[in-house]
Specification:
about 300 residues; Alpha-Beta Plaits; alpha+beta; four-stranded antiparallel beta sheet; 10 helices; seven-stranded mixed beta sheet; globular; single chain
């Protein structure tokens, strides 16, 4: 058995799209998945939380599948490892749990194979697994990410943002990304596409300059995906009405859903979150600041940052 020094990988949750930024925009959030990696005689994954016990612990596990993808790309083999996973990211809720798993798998392979991958190389590998860059770019790089992945080419940028909070409403029910994506039409009216693209442009510029009123208007006029997914979100109209009335500047579907993301300036976020908690008691509500920190790797028993 080839040995290595144990280490840990910590990856954040993320929300994606932010309205019209379909498959392009991502935002890291401070809910984390921690994977502890130790030498073993074979690959296996164990989960701490009961919610995750249904996930496979063998080669079918997404983290291990990602490691195998990196091995194949570089024609190298990692020494076998035991992975102990503790995650506060809810599964199948539109908060990037699969992106965090993929990001962790890439960082694990990078460390075990001594590849010294750049951040953009990691995002590219993640896009090969996920198919789109929104959540994986945010999980790997942190911050607010703007990306394009098409025809094997990737352009991605990560920038820190501040001044606002994301209030996430997490329902008890789950929604598989595949099911949520299937309702989106393959062909979109040219005018709707042009207007949604323009809204995405305004959204990016507005968030980066702190013009949250303008950002909110842009986030609320998406035609790429939100109208087509509305059947999955019966509470969304009421949540929008309540949140906007209490001071939020935007309400969007978080990724593919079923979680809903409410955006509010920091000065009013606490009040907005409290009012939503009072009215929508079936949801678990998190009032979060965007996280500038992406996936990081630590030596065991130390706070030393590898990557």
């Amino acid at each position: 058995m080839v040995s290595f020094k144990p280490f840990s990988v910590v990856a954040p949750a993320s929300t994606a799209n932010l309205g019209p930024g379909y498959d392009s925009l991502g935002l890291a959030l401070p809910i984390y998945q921690t994977v502890k990696i130790e030498p073993s005689d074979s690959w296996r994954v164990e989960y701490v939380q009961p919610e995750h016990q249904t996930l496979p612990g063998d080669e079918k596990n997404l983290i291990i599948k990602t490691v195998r993808h990196v091995e194949k790309k570089f024609n190298k083999t990692c020494p076998p490892a035991k992975l102990m996973v503790e995650s506060d990211i809810p599964l199948s809720r539109g908060l990037g749990s699969s992106a965090a798993a993929i990001s962790s798998g890439i960082s694990i392979a990078d460390q075990l194979l001594n590849l010294s991958l750049s951040q953009e190389e990691k995002i590219y590998l993640a896009c090969e697994m996920e198919g789109h860059p929104d959540n994986v770019s945010a999980s790997i790089a942190g911050g607010f990410t703007v990306s394009r992945y098409a025809n094997g080419n990737l352009d991605t940028i990560s920038v820190p943002v501040n001044g606002f909070s994301v209030i996430v409403l997490v329902p008890l029910t789950t929604l598989e990304t595949k099911e949520s994506r299937e309702v989106i039409p393959k062909i979109l009216d040219h005018r709707d596409a042009a207007m949604s693209s323009a809204a995405g442009n305004v959204l990016v510029a507005s968030l980066l300059t702190g013009d949250f009123d303008k950002a909110g208007r842009a986030m609320m006029v998406d035609k790429f995906h939100e109208p087509h997914r509305s059947r999955f979100f019966p509470d969304l109209p009421d949540i929008k009405k309540t949140a906007l009335a209490e001071g939020a500047f935007a309400v969007t579907i978080s990724g593919a859903g079923p979680s809903i993301a409410v955006y509010a300036e920091n000065v009013s976020a606490g009040h907005v979150a409290s009012e939503l908690e009072n009215k929508f008691k079936s949801y678990t509500i998190h009032n979060l600041l965007p996280s500038d920190k992406g996936t990081v790797l630590y030596e065991k028993n130390e706070n030393h940052l590898f990557a």
